[in-house]
Amino acid sequence: MKKLIASAFLILVQGGLMVTKAQNSEYSGSYGNNVVEEGIAKYYGKNLTGNLTSYGERYDDSQLTASHSRYPLNTLLRVTNLENNRTVDVRVNDYCRCEEEGKLLNLSREAASRLGMIASGRAQVRVEVLNARPATQVNIYRDYDIAASTQDRVPVQPNSLMPQASVPATSPSSYSTAFSEDRTYDINGGVRSPRGFAVQVTALTSLNKIHDMYDELVKLGLSPDEIFVQVGQKDMGKVYRILFGEFSTKEAASERVMWLQERGYRGLVRTHYNY
């Protein structure tokens, strides 16, 4: 009997189904005969488009890609948002020491969009490996020149994409000082004075993430003219609320909350500032 158990164990290891518990993941095991993990996923900001990944690729936020600390280049992963059961398949094209930030992986913006996690910036996910076994070690160096020697290799910044040498990344936060507290703006910082009620989609301290959510709302069919950024103050500093609509009654706004929920996002009714 012991020999049978030992033989079965050997077959599992050789077949790539042996799984070790990942750091900072709540669950690790097998699912549909593939390696799986559960943990927190976050996503890259749009301002990183064009930067080099640790494998030398140009990051494109419209592609379905991800970074992970243990899986090699071109590993295919199936990521499921456990909060809404949305699923997307992504290809690993970057390395990160995600465990140091308490997460399992980073996703491209397009992948995060399909998972419905733009509003929160993070999600509890299940990650299923589709085509490869975990790598015990990955190469965290990139070549500036394919023909360069090992002395020419430069270590990658472990938790971010390599910045472009000639085109510095720009960030909406660079002009966040234009957004004063207790005022309402359009996405470009123009002062607005909407009335009545609105549907708040999210409230964040990052103006970059607010811009991402704005893009999502436009994709859902909302007009830029009906999307607002309301600036408030919390203990941590400025908070940016992204809202849409000017509804005369709370009931009318509540109907649009239901509309938003049908598209995978939460919302709440909030009054516009009364000037």
Number of strands: 15
Strand content: 25-35%
| Uncertain stretches | 1-32, 135-159, 164-176
* Order of SSEs: HEEEEEEHEEEEEEHEEHE
Distance between the first and last residues' Cα: 80 Å
Structural class: alpha+beta
Largest sheet: 6 strands, mixed, barrel
Number of helical segments with 4 or more residues: 4
Report the radius of gyration as a whole number of Å. Answer: 22 Å
- Helical amount among residues, as a percent range? 10-25%
* Overall 3D form: elongated
Q: How are the strands of the largest sheet arranged?
A: 2-6-3-5-4-7
pLDDT averaged over residues: 77
Keywords for this structure?
alpha+beta; 4 helices; 6-stranded antiparallel beta sheet; 6-stranded mixed barrel; 16% helix; 275 residues; 31% strand; disordered N terminus
Structure commentary:
The protein is an alpha+beta fold. Helices cover 16% and strands 31% of the residues. It contains 4 helices and 15 strands. The strands form 3 sheets. The chain has a 6-stranded mixed β-barrel.
